[in-house]
Each structure stands twice: as structure tokens, then as C-alpha cells.
Amino acid sequence: MRAYDIIYKKREGQKLSRAEIEFLIDGYVEGEIPDYQISAWAMAVYFQSMDAEETADLTMIMAESGDMIDLSQIKGKKVDKHSTGGVGDTTTLILAPLVASAGIPVAKMSGRGLGHTGGTIDKLHSIADFNTALNLDRFFDNVNQHGIAVVGQSGNLTPADKKLYALRDVTATVESIPLIASSIMSKKIAGGADAIMLDVKTGSGAFMKDLKEAKKLAKAMVAIGREIGRDTAAYITDMSQPLGYAVGNALEVKEAIETLKGRGAADLRELCLELGAGMLELAGQAEDHAEAKAILREKLNNGQALAKLKQMISAQEGNPAVIDDYSLFPTAEKKVEIKAQKDGYIKELDALKVGLAAMLLGAGRENKESEIDLAVGVELKKKIADRVTKGDTLALLHVNDEKNLAEAKAKLTAAYSYSQTKVKAKDLIYEKIT
User: Domains in the chain, start-ordered, CATH in brackets?
Assistant: First the structure.
């Protein structure tokens, strides 16, 4: 078997066997096949695509290239959730305790963020002493005892994906649906989930900015799940404007707590109820979606979801007093108001520009070495369809370092556009794919 022949076969639009894909990927990880040949293969895939079986084979080969986490020591059906990322995407911090309070074991491995704000692990570090580095035995024990644990990714998970993604990033082959889908799903499979709920974002603040492409990605990932025997479902959700009102690490944790208290942003609460209901269905914990959603709404209303978050914080050595005392969170030195430029209705709120404003303040990483300021970010006061008068406060910038303040203000001001006629709010969910 030769790499040349496999590249040529895919270039001509032919289907590759599992053995051929395995030869390429394993050879690349071992250093036996050079970058330039894998680059050529990735470009061939970009133009010729892969079918569901090929994509599933690639997913499993990448998942099996490193450690495979065995969650069988944890009782119950484990349902993982993955979001393709966005601005103000605080769902894990709400969903994890919410579905755990309904009896689904949440054994969540999350990453640090590279972008507008930190990832889930960065956000949890806003809670003093919170330990995201539990070893596997303690991770399993916490889930069995408390129903929930959220930790950082550890070990040697999917080295093939890490190596291939780094190559795709510099060879203009990132935007290939089969390669994106297999990258995401290989990490979920290696993480040991029995079932997978996917939140595929679309809009200016999302990786998949085009709705049609987002649908293709969602369908590809659900097809992978079906091919490899994992129950999988996907929601395609809006990220044309930020989800919720908070964009920034400590700010988002506070908003998650507010949501679990039955307050907070309506769109964030509704999306978490929808995704959580889907997770209950995948776990077989409800007869249908309506029943699942009613169960979760009751968990919000009776305080059990909030209690589960408090339990998780205590079990992972954090200070549970943050639930009721927000002064214990990192707090920025000053707040800067962004005012409405005219009367009217908010027509657009560009999520990407809001995210960039937060990153300029220090809420996110421009590269892997960047330090995050957990206190800073953007607090929105007005969103699409809201009526405003000139001079109203649209948003607050939470600021420590003023070095990029002028640029951040300009970005956030430009994120808003206005209409003189009433505007309809954007759809929150475009489609569910099962």
C-alpha cells in the first residue's frame, strides 16, 4: 500500500477503504508519511468529500490513535454535549447540573478556549480553588456519588486529530465537512460517551456562518454517530447575536447561576431546556420531548438544578458561597458604557464583533500562550428587537487594562445596527436532526 495511490484514488473521487484511511492516518502519526502527502490527501477530501462510511472510519481511527476513556465504571447512560462554539456560549455550565439533577450522569471533559473568551474550564477557574484536574478514579467517584463532574481533558486523547488539525489549519483545508465532523466526533468517542447531543451554531459568531453548511455538518455528525452505534442528535442554533447577555469568563458563570435560579436571559434558558430535553430523550429518561422539557423546567423551578451546581463546586474543592455572593468572583476595576447612537429598534447585533471586543479587553486568547483576564468582558443590555432611545445604555465593557479600550468600544458600537420599524427576534433553533 502506498500513500500516493490512496491520494490519487481520493483525488479521482473514489471511495477509500478503512484499511487505506488507517494506513494514511497511522503512518502520519508515526512520522512515516510526510506532511506534504497528508496535505495533498486533505485537499483531495476537501474537493471530493467522503461518504458516511468513510467519515465514520476516519473518526474511529482518529479516536483510537490515543487514549480511549472507559466510562463503564459510571452507572447509567452517559450523554455528552458538544457545541461548535460561539459568543456567550454558557450552555455547559447550565446544562451539566440541570440534566444531572434529572438523573443523567454527567461525566464531562472540556477544554480551554482559543478565541473570544475562555472555554468551560477557564470559566470554572473563576470560582476560587475549583479543581478541574481530578484524576480518573476521583472523576469516576464524583460522578457516581454526585451525578456530575466537569474536568479538563487529560492524557493522550486523539493525537491524530491534533496533528491533522494543525496541518489543515495552514493548508486551507479546515472547511471540509467530513474533516470537521470527524475531528469533533473523534474527541467525543474517545471521551467514552454512550450518546452525544450536538449544538451546531450558525451565524456571524459561529464557526459555520452559513445555515446550509451548518446543516451539512450536523447531518454528517449524526450520520457518524449512527454508523458507529452511538445515539446522536443535533440542534442547529442561532449565533448571529450572542447567547444570553454576558460575554466573559466570570460574567458568564454568574449568568449561568442566574439562569439556574430561574432568572437570566430567556434565550439562554430556553436553549438549555431544549438541549437538555434532547439529552433526556437520548438517555431514555422521558417518553417524549415535551415530557423531558417539563421535567427540566421543574428542576429549575424547585431549585434542584442549582443545588446540583453547588454540590459539584463543593465536590471539586471550589467555594460554593459564590452561588449567593457574586463579590467572590474576579471583578473588573471599571465599567464603560456603550450608548445608543439613535432612536429605533435593534436590527442586528453582530456576535463576532461583540466577541472581538471581549477578546480585546483580555477575556480570550489570541494564541495558546495568551493569559486570560477572568474578570473582563462585555455585559449586553439590549439585543435584537429591543426598542432604544438615543443615549440608552446598549452594553457595559468590564475593563482592567485600557490598552485596547478604544478599539473595543469601536467594535462594540459597530456591532449594533438600527431600524426605524419594529424588528422580529431571530429564531433560536433552526432545526433538530436525529
Answer: 3-48 (1.20.970.10), 79-323 (3.40.1030.10), 330-419 (3.90.1170.30)
